[in-house]
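ok, trying the design again with the full structure, not the truncated one.
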């Protein structure tokens, strides 16, 4: 058993999971763990190409707010959350549904995240190890050096990377074994890297044409905090422009550069993230939740909720029951 597989198994066992003995053993590269019944319900499935890449699929739910602490070996990783609610710590960042997260680890950090109780965690991740991108890829590309670390750091926000999201959803829904699985997963890893590098090139070209000063960034951060605290109310570009001391055109460009998404998309995501909490943690009717997060019409709320999470509000409320 190699160090990558050992690391995953130890991580899962220490985190409250136990080996799923009903999972097929025909493919030595794959294994599945179940969350202990006293902690929650659901599974964590892995495909490991030893010291090359790892793919994991998470479909579980904690019964209590749970702090997760994991070692971070050297790797580059991209994760898509279909459903989640929580916070990453050090540095702090909010975990929201239908978002992409990129991670670049040097092997000397501990990953920490707080996952909220009763909110299903549905995600898929592709992680590549140094031998994969330092040797295997270099041979495939005739010695070309790829700045993958920088490319991974450019990825943020789900709706701005539809091809990458679609690819990860395909990986999440795949259940093959043996040689077909080996071909499928390796192909998807290479395809994902191509999409990430394409995005990095586009971002690099865009940055050459737009300059944002430190003062601009500080003012923009103030506008973002205003959205964070007032997302349930009507917010206009004109209001945000005054807060950020920018014209509306510059604000739209700077906001996209700073957050990875448009002003309207950021506002919608804040509303849907809060609605996710209310659907699980309260008995409010869907129409009441729609108004609480800033929507006068339930159908508009339902449409945006489905676009962001992939579920109707009523379906999302029933997710926990379905996972039992």
């Amino acid at each position: 058993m190699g160090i990558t597989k050992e690391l995953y198994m130890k991580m899962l066992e220490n985190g409250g999971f136990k080996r799923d003995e009903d999972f097929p053993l025909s493919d030595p590269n794959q294994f599945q763990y179940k969350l202990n019944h006293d902690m929650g319900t659901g599974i964590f499935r892995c495909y490991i190409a030893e010291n090359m890449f790892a793919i994991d699929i998470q479909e579980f739910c904690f019964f209590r707010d749970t702090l997760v602490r994991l070692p971070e070996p050297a790797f580059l990783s991209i994760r898509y959350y279909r459903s989640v609610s929580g916070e990453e710590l050090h540095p702090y960042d909010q975990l929201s549904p239908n978002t992409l997260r990129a991670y670049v680890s040097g092997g000397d950090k501990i990953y920490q995240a707080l996952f909220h109780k009763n909110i299903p965690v549905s995600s898929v991740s592709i992680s590549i190890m140094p031998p994969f991108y330092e040797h295997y890829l270099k041979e495939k590309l005739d010695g070309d050096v790829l700045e993958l670390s920088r490319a991974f750091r450019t990825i943020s926000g789900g709706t701005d990377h539809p091809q990458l999201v679609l690819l990860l959803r395909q990986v999440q829904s795949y259940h093959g074994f043996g040689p077909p699985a080996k071909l499928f997963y390796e192909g998807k890893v290479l395809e994902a890297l191509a999409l990430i590098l394409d995005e990095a090139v586009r971002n690099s070209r865009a940055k050459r044409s737009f300059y944002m000063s430190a003062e601009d960034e500080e003012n923009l951060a103030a506008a973002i905090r205003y959205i964070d605290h007032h997302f349930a109310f009507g917010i206009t570009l004109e209001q945000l422009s005054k807060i950020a001391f920018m014209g509306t055109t510059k604000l739209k460009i700077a906001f996209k550069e700073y957050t990875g998404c448009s002003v309207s998309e950021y506002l919608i995501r804040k509303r849907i993230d809060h609605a996710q909490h209310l659907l699980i943690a309260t008995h409010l009717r869907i129409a009441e939740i729609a108004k609480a997060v800033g929507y006068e019409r339930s159908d508009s709320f339902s449409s945006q909720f489905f676009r962001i999470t992939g579920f109707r509000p009523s379906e999302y409320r029933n997710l926990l029951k379905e996972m039992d």
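Keeping the full-length input from now on. The two ends are 32 Å apart (CA to CA).
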